[in-house]
Amino acid sequence: MNIFRRLLPTKVGFKKSKNSCNARGFCSIHSSPDCVVQVHSSEQEVIIALGSNVGNRLQNFDEALHLMKKSGIQITRHACLYETAPAYVTDQPRFLNSAVRGVTKLGPHELLGVLKKIEKDMGRTTGIRYGPRPIDLDILFYGKFKIHSEILDVPHERIWERPFVVAPLIDLLGSDIDSDTVACWHSFSKHSGDLFELWEKLGGESLVGRNGMKRVLPVGNNLWDWSSKTSVMGILNLTPDSFSDGGKYLSVEAAVSQVRLMLSEGADIIDFGAQSTRPNASKISVEEELDRLIPVIEAVNKMPEVEGKLLSVDTFYSDVASDAVKNGVHLVNDVSGGRLDSNMHSVVAALRVPFITMHMRGDPSSMQNPENLQYNDVCKDVAFELYERLKEAELAGIPAWRLIIDPGIGFSKNTEHNLDILTGLTTIRSEIARRSLALSRAPLLIGPSRKRFLGEVCARPAADERDPATVAAVTTGVLNGANIVRVHNVRYNAYALRLCDALLERKRYA
Questions:
Q1: Distance from the CA of 479 to the CA of which of 19, 112, 130, 330 falls in 20 to 30 A?
Q2: CA-CA distance, 274 to 290, in Å (whole number)?
Q3: Where would I find the H helices in 100-241?
């Protein structure tokens, strides 16, 4: 039994309370200072908004999520992360805003008390209304209930006028309405339509990137607005057996020279791979992978040219990911999406770095087996399987705002599948959006560079002869929604991306 209890001094009774359920299936609760309202229930699904503009804003979010979990709130979904201009009181620092969806056995006033204690423990004090604060936690929805008391209104009274609240709220839904509770939330909108129509009336996606609101991904010490330009990830294979350039960068000196070249040609990210994931590749040990990897990362971090750039590690071992991040790497890129190491998600969650989740069936030694190449509709099937991996990561504690999507071109795909994915990226996003809008809005990475399907289409059996086809594949992917491209030849692809970004900019403001 859950007890909906006011936190002010009370005496038990129902004489001044009114509970009413309407035809839409939600319940209204009105309480007064001398009553306790009891409702028989198990756990309730809730949405809680987060805001911060004092101190280390992202660290404040991480700490608040940790304390919420300790206090009996099981977080199941995270919205995207937004940096927004302050509202109402404008002479203060910019805010980070987001929201989480979860379940709890706490009653609504009990939940309110927990959130207020977290705010206090994190240093929030009484100040000007809408003024600066290290953390702000608000209950947006509580089950199917509308609640009105002297200290709590659910839905929160000013949701409907605040884009910085509605944007993350929408992220926590899917375009499909998958439960009676979600249907109730839509019905709470004060506008004639549902929450999606409310968001559109406020301005919808046109607000993001303008009017003081940016959707960002925290990486390193920065908030990355990946929509401002397409990013180039340069590939550095520290392996003797990679399909394109295996053996070329085994020495630290050769590796550093190649990094310097890629940075000079426009790379935004360097992706270090010390284990081959080509078809039929055999696994090497954690120790061997680290022996190849760490000396190069240490040397690259001493380069002045790397200032302001991002470093990524391409590995499916959690121990390698952990050591690489401790040595200065900013992102973890896992071709298995966490499926080849059961500790990967929990390790990355603790490291608090972005996680690139790629689609692959099996492992590199088995991914091209006939059973792994069977799809009904490759874009829809990849989207569903990617969503499952993303949800596993999110439930393990990696927020949606730290996830990056990779549909895995060349991994468990034949030539036709790869072509369909390049032209079907919008389908992959929309299929993920049916279940989670936040996950569908994550940055999308593609890696077609020099892969076999390009050789088959263009009759170029040698990998290093496939750069022109790579440029065409990258261009197709970016014009269909890719945000990051992973390539061997940075120079040619960087030029192509400039043109793609110019075309997209013209289209956006046409």
A1: 330
A2: 8
A3: 108-121, 163-171, 180-187, 195-202
List Cβ<8 Å contacts ≥24 apart for 198-207. 198/160, 198/166, 199/166, 199/167, 199/170, 202/163, 202/166, 203/163, 207/163, 207/167
Encode pLDDT of 148-187 as tens digits.
999 999 997 788 888 999 999 999 999 999 899 999 999 9
- Is residue 251 a contact partner of residue 217, using CB atoms and an 8 Å limit? no
Q: Which of 318, 49, 320, 23 has its CA nearest to residue 172?
A: 49
pTM, rounded to two decimals:
0.90
Report d(CA 208, CA 377) in Å as an integer: 32
Q: Are strands 95-104 and 73-78 parallel, antiparallel or unpaired?
A: antiparallel
Identify which of 80, 149, 76, 85 has the alpha carbon closest to the alpha carbon of residue 112: 149
Q: Annotated catalytic residue: which of 486, 491, 498, 508? A: 486
Spatial CA neighbour of 440 closest among 106, 79, 149: 79
Contact indicator for 184, 24 with CB cutoff of 8 Å: yes
451 catalytic? Reply is yes
**Residue 147: which residues within 8 A CB-CB, separation 6 or more?**
4, 28, 29, 31, 108, 153, 154
Q: β-strands 153-154, 145-148: how paired?
A: antiparallel
Pick the CATH number of 44-215 from 3.30.70.560, 3.20.20.70, 3.40.50.300, 1.10.3720.10: 3.30.70.560
Q: How far apart are CA 399 and CA 68, in angstroms?
A: 14
pLDDT digits (tens, 9 = 90+) for 36-66: 444 445 899 999 999 999 999 999 999 999 9
User: Which residue is associated with the tokens 């990056």?
Assistant: 404
Is the confidence at residue 465, as pLDDT, over 90?
yes
Q: Where are the domains of the chain?
A: 44-215, 229-509
The DSSP element (H or E) to which 299 belongs, if any, is helix 286-300
Q: How far apart are CA 21 and CA 152, in angstroms?
A: 19
- Kindly report whether the peptide bond that precedes residue 155 is cis, defined as omega within 30 degrees of 0: yes
The one-letter amino acid code at 121 reads D
Residues whose CB is less than 8 angstroms from the CB of residue 281 and which lie 6 or more positions away in sequence, other chains included: 241, 275, 364, 365
Name every residue whose Cβ is closer than 8 Å to that of residue 52 and which is 6 or more positions away in sequence: 60, 61, 95, 96, 133, 134, 135, 136
Three-state SS at 123: coil
Question: Which residues of 73-197 form beta strands (DSSP E)?
Answer: 73-78, 81-84, 95-104, 136-142, 145-148, 153-154
Active site residue 18: no
Q: Which of 451, 460, 466, 506 is catalytic?
A: 451
Query: What's the rounded mean pLDDT across residues 135-149?
Result: 94
For the chain, the C-alpha Rg in angstroms (whole number) is 25
Residue 132 Cα to chain centre, angstroms? 26
